[in-house]
Design a protein that fits this description.
Blueprint lengths: L20 H11 L12 H9 L2 E2 L5 E10 L6 H7 L5 E11 L5 E9 L4 H4 L33 E4 L7 E5 L5 E5 L7 E3 H7 L5 H8 L1 E6 L6 H4 L2 E3 L3 E2 L6 E3 L7 H9 L4 E6 L6 H8 L5 H12 L7 H13 L8 H11 L12 H15 L19 H9 L1
Antiparallel strand pairs: 1-2, 2-3, 3-4, 5-6, 6-7, 7-8, 9-13, 10-13, 11-12
Length: about 400
């Protein structure tokens, strides 16, 4: 390349920075050509192969493992490629290992010619390969919430993963907290409490313990209205003598009910303090058709696979595949970081699949927005956007 001739009289104050350094660095990190094959990080091309392999046969007798990859030097230089009209490419050699049950492993090496395009060729793909999201989208699949308006009474907080189903938590017109999977399939919905039960919070006590506190109120003392407001009875209250029901489960605790309980010989009452959200989550719990983890798993499986008979084992496998399998669901590194930053979660967690804490923190944040607390995100703000680098785009398309 010829040196640039300057005809101006003013001298440069600072040297011109490398304006494409972030892209070239990203592509070097994607290839990791300088790193030894046994010390490459789980990013870029190495991560793509690790996600796909091992590939096992249906009977489990054979499995094809990924061992390593090597990239040779290009046969032509960039200038020669421009002059001759060729693609600036290099051969990619991949080593696999075939494992067979009760037999020694066989090792085979294959190669394919992979065209490593220049950055401008990668940037032509301005839209994602899966859902039409623009390549320069808001950072890390930022958890977003629309503030509920008085007209529709709804709010939603979707999560956009790199790979997997979209999860949208939304209030319906009845103030029930619903979960929708994938916008185009709105029929695939179920209560958020049902999803939490399927994740391990099976009983009502475990479910309510996430959002509320339990109290034991002594009836020997005088309970003022301040002590009774936003309190509901934890279980059915039945008179031992007449076997009549004084109060149903989750009925509000009132002064008249306290008098009836005293007359029936009760000395204390177990209550649930719903002051935090004034009973918004409790309303969904009361409408929840499921009452255990098994019931929730079957209900979700029936809604996602309406034509198949629901079983516990099939439902667990389906739930794991949709949300907890790294090969099928991936928040991305930036997505995990933004969720931790937004929700104040443990920054040491580097998991890129859905965690129970993510869903619980998102629901709490959404309920707070429902009550007028917290702030909403403007996805059109430049602070909520980022440009995907070359290495990230190639990794996503390759996966």
């Amino acid at each position: 390349m010829a040196d640039r001739v300057k005809y101006g009289k003013l001298s440069d104050v600072i040297d011109l920075p490398d304006l494409i350094e972030i892209q070239t660095t990203s592509y070097r990190d994607f290839l990791q050509m300088d790193a030894p094959t046994n010390r490459r990080k789980l990013i870029g091309l190495q991560a793509v192969f690790k996600e796909v392999f091992p590939i096992e046969s249906y009977d489990g007798q054979c499995a094809l493992d990924f061992v390593k990859y090597e990239i040779s030097e290009p046969k032509m230089s960039p200038i020669e490629c421009l002059r001759e009209g060729h693609s600036y490419s290099a051969p990619l050699y991949v080593t696999f290992r075939l494992r067979r049950a009760r037999k020694s492993a066989k090792k085979t090496s294959t190669w394919r010619n992979s065209a490593h395009h220049r950055a401008r060729n990668v940037y032509r793909q301005r839209r994602g390969a899966r859902r039409g999201e623009p390549a320069a989208s808001f950072p890390g699949h930022l958890l977003r919430a629309k503030y509920p308006s008085k007209r529709d009474g709804s709010a939603f907080l979707p999560d956009y993963p790199d790979r997997g189903s979209w999860i949208e938590v939304q209030f319906d017109t009845s103030d029930l907290l619903q979960i929708y999977l994938d916008r185009k399939k709105r029929r695939r919905k179920f209560l958020a409490t049902t999803f939490l039960r399927a994740l391990g919070f099976g009983t009502d006590e475990e479910l309510l313990g996430i959002f509320y506190t339990f109290e034991k109120l002594s009836l020997k003392e005088t309970l003022s209205d301040d002590k009774l407001v936003n309190r509901v009875v934890k279980d059915d209250i039945i008179d031992a003598d007449s076997q009549s029901i004084l109060a149903r489960k989750y009925d509000p605790l009132t002064s008249d009910l306290v008098k009836q309980m005293k007359s029936a010989g009760f000395h204390e009452v177990e209550a649930v303090n719903v002051k935090w959200d004034e009973g918004i989550i409790l309303k969904s719990v009361k409408k929840d058709p499921t009452h255990s983890m098994d019931d929730a798993l079957k209900d979700i499986y029936h809604r996602l696979r309406p034509g198949d008979p629901p079983t516990i084992s099939n439902a667990k496998q389906l739930l794991k595949r949709v949300f907890f399998d790294p090969r099928r669901y991936d928040l991305g590194r930036v997505g995990r970081y933004k969720i931790q930053q937004k929700m104040g979660l443990d920054a040491k967690n580097d998991s890129r699949v859905l965690e129970k804490e993510d869903l619980i923190a998102s629901i709490k944040y959404l309920v707070s927005l429902r009550r007028g607390e917290g702030t909403v995100d403007d996805i059109d703000h430049l602070g909520s956007r980022r440009v995907r680098t070359v290495g990230e785009l190639v990794e996503i398309n390759a996966a």
